[in-house]
Please model this.
Amino acid sequence: MADTITPIVMPKFGLAMTEGKLAFWSVDDGDTLKVGDEIADIETSKITNAYESPVDGVLRRKVAAAGDTLRVGALIGVVAPADVSDADIDSFIETFQSTAVVEDDEGAVATVTEPTQIDIGGQSIRVLDLHGPDGVPVLLIHGFGGDLNGWLFTQPPLAVERRAISFDLPGHGGSDKTVEDGSKEALAKVALGVLDALGVDKAHLVGHSLGGGVAIAAAAAAPERVASLSLIAPAGLGSEINGDFITTMAEATRTRDIEAGLRPLFADPGLVSRDMVQDMQRFKRIDGVTAALRAIAAANFPDGHQADLTRSRLEELSAPVQIIWGEADAVVPVAQSADLPDRIAVHVLAGAGHMPQMEQTAAVNKLLIAFLAAH
Amino acid sequence: MSTLQINRDVMARSYRAMRTIRDFEERLHIEFATGEIPGFVHLYCGEEASGVGVCANLTDNDTIASTHRGHGHCIAKGVDVGAMMAEIYGRKSGICGGKGGSMHIADLSRGMLGANGIVGGGPPLICGAALSHKLLKDGGVAVAFYGDGASNEGTTLESLNLASVWHLPAVFVVEDNGYGEATAASYAVAGTQKARAAGFGMEYFECDGTDFFDVYEVAGKAIERARRGEGPSMVHVHLSRWYGHFEGDSMSYRKSEDVAAERRDRDCLVKFRNRTTEAGLFTADELDSVDQAVRDEIELSVRNAKAAPMPEAPDLLSDVYVSY
Amino acid sequence: MSKKSYRQAINEALRQEMRRDPRVVLIGEDVAGGRGGSAGNNESWGGVLGVTKGLYTEFGPDRVLDTPISEASYIGAAAGAAATGLRPVAELMFVDFIGSCLDQVMNQMAKFRYMFGGKARTPLVIRTMYGAGFSAAAQHSQALYPLFTHIPGLKVVVPSSPYEAKGLLIEAIRDDDPVIFFENKVMYDDEEEVPDEMYSIPFGEANLTREGGDVTLIAIGRMVKLANEAADRLKAEGIGCTVIDPRTTSPLDTATILECVAETGRVVIVDESSPRCGMAADLSALIAEEAFADLKAPIRRVMPPHTPVPFASTLESLYVPDVNRIISAVRSVAPQTAERVA
Model:
């Protein structure tokens, strides 16, 4: 019955959020929910946001209580159809909670699977491996300047159906900061290396932005290992890109410059929080990060344009492909989703910028879950 | 009496250095009186054999720290004479761009860690330079020049202790000219330099600071000891300054016949000339031609310095920091 | 990333930089502690408050050099070593001891570069403890960063938290100028998330630890913590405060300070150093000169009185600025309720 049970987890508002407080529940046990219904208010040190249901169903269990502070990704409730038995709900919760139990400052107990470091060809790569039921696993590849935390809205719901793996590209997050030539091929080698290291023969690839380009390069290099491609605002389909954004991500160090640089990511620039800016700034201060971002930018986005276009490689792939794009993307223009072969499904989402997986989480998750289930 | 078993090139270079210091300082004595040179100037005349005798044992890889009476040490360590003169005139072409002046001439590329306007400023720095030589294993030795006046500074005494505790490749050269400013060492220095060295467990050497060969040989022993990793030592150099503490000091604390006798009987250049010509190492003509070359060099350095541009407004703000 | 104390953050910065660069050496009194003792324990202290613990064991006696109690010689040695190829980190145990070695800081290291016409580099850090709060009395409690800020040629860093301490110390060690690094002795056990990686925070870039529209609080070192607490409590009563942590008093991020003053027009400066000729006076002059037209209320300064730091705990707690005094000062200049933007 697990495939009909959905975990409601502490969401991540902004790239910097590591924990949140469940301010209050907006719904009660037994309430019927539709996608987009407000189910709780979540407070972080900087923002309070309504959290909307990612699924249709009945709120079967509140795992966290109002006032609890929990790590991002921790289970706060369970949604399932009314006909799922309480025993199944119990066993689902037990399975979900079976990974590391972490006690945070406030003494609340949160359940999270912590990322681990693995060695890929001499490089230490940070990986978050969420084990789901049997099935073809999915590998999530983040974009330029991001990290695996960008999938915190995406990865747990996907892990309900299958093993879901995210990792930090070289030069990013908790991975080593050496990037070789910074090309999509070099990064794709690491992505395939992650699959090798985790014993995964074949996987669905989900890539965002630069990660989309990396996914295409991985599929071109090892087509037999790719079950499908889901590309969110992928790089490599056209030459245009927001050069200021790339420059800012690589070069900006001051708070206000970084803040200005992050705004184009979202249709709603109000989503750029102080925490998000601070997190980016702290990341950029780490030794080697600037050099890594410069190398990647030089290889992929020189002189304010995209180089190393992969559109033809994408068109030659036999694996099923879907493309998801924010209608208001101010980094990579949504127009680049045009003129693709008919077999490639293109979904343009209103109310989303370059980060639809954060701004239109429910819609993106629905598309991903359905596409992965079909292939 | 030391032998003359010294490389002839070293002797020739040393004679030229001593003569250069003498002429440089004598010329400054004249030029300062014209009012064209700003600030304070402290002359090294009479002490030339000390700086040159010590530095003849050193290379650019070794480090020295000097005093407010630093011109002689700078020349002995190979700092460019024209750039020094320009510095003393406060010109942009000076070795420090006109921002240091007489008391702050430095050239780190020559291992010259600076003249120093603070009495006792150098010995702690030399402990650090010696530490660099030791830890970077570059074979270098660090030498602190300081006077009998600075020998009473806490910084100096602390440095003697630290150098012994850390077993540093350092040499402390006390240039004892008998006066700290206007007060005699016989009044201001308690005990003896020898006892002070012993008090810090340090080897002690002494030499006649008007005899290049004596200084060269004695300092050489201390420097080679340090180079071999045998620790620091003190070299006590007895000498006399021919001019006042600074230019304009009438030396009313000293009998004029004392100075006259020093000039007459203990001139290091005369001593060097007599000994080397008597031994047939140099002819009088050879030394005369060095003297002439030096006169020309000093004349040129003064002419160039006077003609050189002054620093300008932007120079006021530059080089406070490497980056700010 | 894990929680680390201010002490651990500093220790980690030193350790990582010493691993990265063999020219980095520690010099100071009892930075290891125990040399020559009858116990034969050459690292019995690791610094008087344990900040350098473990470094002697890892790097040995050539990299972690205990000194005699002899500040003038070893602070001067640090300057001489820096000018000749090493990158020393010297520890002046308590900043109050500067009286024994100020010449080497003020007249030597600070001035080499300028006096020598830009040809010298003196890459050294002096780590030193400051601050009242431990009943350490008048000779072990002063906050003397204004003294060093006054001297051209020095950079002065006053980190306000463990994260700040690690990033700023790494920056200080890599910097090519002499840097005086002030550690507040009361903060060594403060904890927060600090990355395991090496990272550096640039000098002269102020940090806004709170943002609010009504009053600008400028605070230095440990006072940032108190200002944050005051800002959080004032927010509850509807007064929004921006808190500026300048991080470095030299260089000083005047642009950020003036921008914030332009936004709020109301300024409270919180400083633990003595009031006369101190940082608060300096900042007040800056604001009065450059942002007079923006001011809607007098500049308020929350400072100790012009006295030595007292010993008795009753007196010491009166001496050091506290949250209540900050709150009172903010209230005294805050806009009327209707005008607040929070």
Observations:
- Residues 6-20 of chain C form the longest helix (15 residues).
- The two ends of chain C are 33 Å apart (CA to CA).
